[in-house]
Write a structure and sequence with these properties.
The protein is α/β, with parallel strands linked by helices. The chain is built from twelve helices and seven strands. The strands form two sheets. Strands 3-4-5-6-7 form a five-stranded mixed beta sheet, sandwiched between helices. A two-stranded antiparallel ribbon has the order 1-2.
Length: about 280
């Protein structure tokens, strides 16, 4: 049976992909088989992958709300918009968890012009400069123009650092981080130019989704209890991580929600953070 990807491409329906995504979220085998059985009954020729995902999510939420929160991780990243700043802060938090000293939205001088760097990350005497390319819509991949542009900015900063600052900044590498995917040309250029490319599924085994799962640093947008309006309110207050909301639960008081619902939301956040 042919289904339609977000890009418009027609592909064969794969139970393996659905199974792997459910298993990665922590669903047990009984739940996985239940969802696959229901999907096989309901899907039809030409259905979109988005519709399949939404149905699988609804079925999973009926069985296990906390596992459903982890299952919607990719969609939750898209919900960090519409601006890119929450994503930058989210990426910085993941790197900080890996032992980096991080700074967000810093201005660095280049030989030609000055540049705003999304994230500066330093570890073991080496500094990485990160550009975060956030997309709020699925299907918008980063093509080769993105690493080309970022590499030119990085080289301008390196040039100024080497000539005018005499190597004061221990610059090691430029990074490009996106919540979507890179095209093949973008990956090829990144490798050739010495840029580190980090996307939803690249590099394999240490991609963005892997780093999130390993760290347990989930964005508040994974919550199945918070409404879209409540999520945007918290993001506007720079509350990006579930862990931040646990530590600063008073933000929920500003939403005028009941004490029972507040406790349930905090419970959900704690379970997500401790079952990574």
């Amino acid at each position: 049976m042919k289904i339609i990807k977000t890009s418009g491409e027609k592909v064969d329906f794969s139970t393996t992909k659905v199974t792997n995504s459910l298993r990665r979220a922590g669903a047990d085998e009984d739940i996985i088989q239940y969802i696959l059985h229901k999907l096989k009954e309901e899907i039809y020729e030409g259905i979109s992958t988005k519709q399949i995902y939404n149905r699988a999510f609804q079925l999973l939420k009926q069985k296990n709300r906390f596992t459903a929160s982890r299952y919607k991780l990719k969609k939750a990243i898209y919900e960090l918009g519409p601006t890119g700043f929450p994503f930058e802060k989210f990426v910085a938090a993941i790197l900080k968890n890996d032992g980096y000293k991080v700074q967000v939205s810093e201005i660095l001088q280049g030989t030609c012009v000055s540049h705003e760097v999304d994230v500066m990350a330093e570890k073991d005497g080496e500094m990485m400069l990160l550009e975060c390319k956030f997309h709020s819509q699925e299907g918008r991949n980063c093509d080769v123009k993105i690493p080309l542009y970022i590499h030119s900015r990085y080289k301008d900063i390196v040039s100024f650092n080497n000539t005018r600052l005499k190597g004061k900044l221990p610059l090691k590498q430029g990074w490009v981080v996106t919540n979507t995917r890179f095209t093949d040309d973008a990956l090829t250029y990144g490798k050739c130019a010495g840029l580190y490319l980090l996307s939803w599924d690249h590099p394999k085994g240490n991609a963005l989704k892997d780093r999130i799962d390993h760290s347990g640093l989930y964005p508040i947008t994974v919550s199945t209890l918070l409404t879209a309006r409540e999520k945007q309110f918290l993001l506007s207050r720079d509350v990006v991580l579930c862990l931040e909301l646990i530590n600063d639960a008073f933000y929920l008081d500003h939403l005028g929600i009941s004490e029972t619902r507040k406790n349930n939301i905090i419970k959900e956040m704690k379970i997500l953070c401790t079952h990574s």
